Structures are given as structure tokens and as C-alpha cells.
């Protein structure tokens, strides 16, 4: 059978290797503690779950849902955004419901890129940002992120010949996997850069509420105040711990929203109305719910960092997200995949290898703090025993 050539760039990756390694660990009798995926273990808002149950019993929610049927959800998104950032958006022309923000990052290249165009992507960065570019026939120019620069890209260092063919820049702060944050001043520079070079700016913003210390994470539209060049993707997976519900939305320049909706309309319908109803209720959840979750993750962060320090593995203290991003043990330098595969097969503790997020991620591993403090400490003790056995 002859398959499309575009699939060649979507072949197996390090995360499929890790999935296979986790399977081998389970088959050998180990209990896998999966700290490799940012899948929250906290329950969604109770009122949102209650609304979903009620919607399931409403037979009028069982059919296809088109754009006009999402009016209430879009109005709720606009109201939430105004309350959060003080910026008014038009729910009719500047908001689009998504089946998770990942749908947005996957489809937006099809809306703005032609084959051969460049997309400027963070390296390391979220792996799904790459797939949509490949499917659109685009080229990728990686923006290497360095700790000494706060894991922010040097936009002015991009070669002119690349800029001339660039149509898309994808940013995402607070950042996965490094947990870095960005200021409104950096976003203002990025917006100006994209405006000067005719580039669409995508801001993937799933960790909008996931700030453990310091000021609230800024929206891209606090810099692109007229919504001239940008589109921003929001998710319910992190703030409201609704990852399995696959619900998100886009806010942005009306032309970009229209173009994205044209692509989306040829692939799928809107999310199930019951999930939209639940998400609408989640948006009205009291801030105490988010604050309590952030307190839990702050405690996990501090506990895990202390436990790692005790075994001689120092980890930087992140100000945001649910991750620790730390150098791989010296004996495994340049072998982050080998380390993570060997670790899970020996102990059942699964971490994410840095190379899975791009070439610049090699030499690091990512801990997802998605288990309680006791489990995290026990897992780190297992890691310590694993490392000691190799000495």
C-alpha cells in the first residue's frame, strides 16, 4: 500500500518509545508512576461535572453542533476574558470553540501557510506544534531556547532568507517543557517583530492560570491590543483539569478566526454541547478553585525539589506550570531517552526525555508533578536507588 509522503515526518518519536517502555514495565509486574505526561490528577469543578451530567440527560444535546449553536459558550469566553485581562472581544467574530487547544495549533498552519513556507517554532517546545506544520507542507526553523536567556527566543537572530519565507511564529508562555515565563514587554517585541515581517503570531496559552508565584501570565493581546497579527489558544485541560474533555477556544484577529474556522469546518463539527455547557460553568468557577489547585502544585514543586536535592540532583525552581525541567544525571549526558527508558523499565517511574521536545531539549528531563507529594517523594527515592545501582 502506498501512503502519503507527508506521513514520513510523523513517524514514531521518543514518546512512542516511552509508551512502549511503560508497557514493558507493566508487563514485568511494575506499577508505573507516570510523571511523563502533564495529565492533571485533580478533579474538575464539581459544578461543571454536574452540568455535564444534566446535559447528557437532555436529548436536545445529542445532535451535531454547528457554530451558531455555540453562542452561549462564546459569550461566556468573552466575559471570562474581559474579567481576566480587561480586554473586550467580539464573541461572534473573534472567538472559536476548539476540541482542545491542540486542535488549534494543528490546524492553524493549514490556514496561513503554503508548502515551503517557514514556521518559527520554539526548541524545546510542545511536540504537537510541529505536526501541523509538516501536514501543511511547511518548513520548520527552530528557535533554540537557552537558560541564560530565560528560555526566550532571539527573534532578531533569525536569518533574513528565513524571514522572507516565514509565515508563522508559535510562542507558548508559561512554557512547556521549561516552565519559563514571559513578560508583556517580550510579547510587545514579538508583536512588533511579526508586524514588521508580515508573520502570524500564535500564542498557545494552556497555562494561563498555572502561575505558582509572581504576577499573572500576560495575554498576547495585552501587546497586540488591536488584534492585528495574533491568535491565542486557551485550554480547559490545565486551569480546570478537564484534559479528557478535549475542550478549548481561540481568541484573535477576525480574519485568522475565520480562516481557522474554514479549515475546521471541513474536518469536524463543534465539541459536544454537553461539554460546552460544562466548560461554560467552569469559566464561572470561583477563583478559589484555581488558587487551591495552585497551592497543591506549589507544595508538590517544593517537595519534589527538596527530595531531589537530598539525592544530589538539584532542580531549578519554576515559577509556573506543573513541571520541573532539570539536567539529566551526568552519567547519562546526551542520552535522555536512554535514561528515561532504563529508569521506567527498572523502577516504574516514567519521566519525559528532553529530546522529545526538540534538539535543544537534549540533556534534560521533565518531571510532571501530577501525583501527590508522598508519591513524588517515593518516586524520587526509587530514582536514587536506580542511580546508586549504576555507580
Features:
40% helix; 391 residues; Aspartate Aminotransferase, domain 1; alpha/beta; Aspartate Aminotransferase, domain 2
Descriptive account of the structure:
There is one protein chain. With 391 residues, the protein is an alpha/beta fold. It folds into two domains: 142 residues, Aspartate Aminotransferase, domain 1; 223 residues, Type I PLP-dependent aspartate aminotransferase-like (Major domain) (Aspartate Aminotransferase, domain 2). It is 40% helix and 14% strand. The chain is built from twelve helices and twelve strands. The strands form three sheets. The protein has a seven-stranded mixed sheet, with helices on both faces. A three-stranded antiparallel sheet has the order 9-12-11. Helix 5 links the parallel strand 3 and strand 4. Helix 1 packs parallel to helix 11, helix 2 runs antiparallel to helix 9 and helix 3 runs parallel beside helix 9. It is globular, with a radius of gyration of 21 Å. The mean pLDDT is 95.
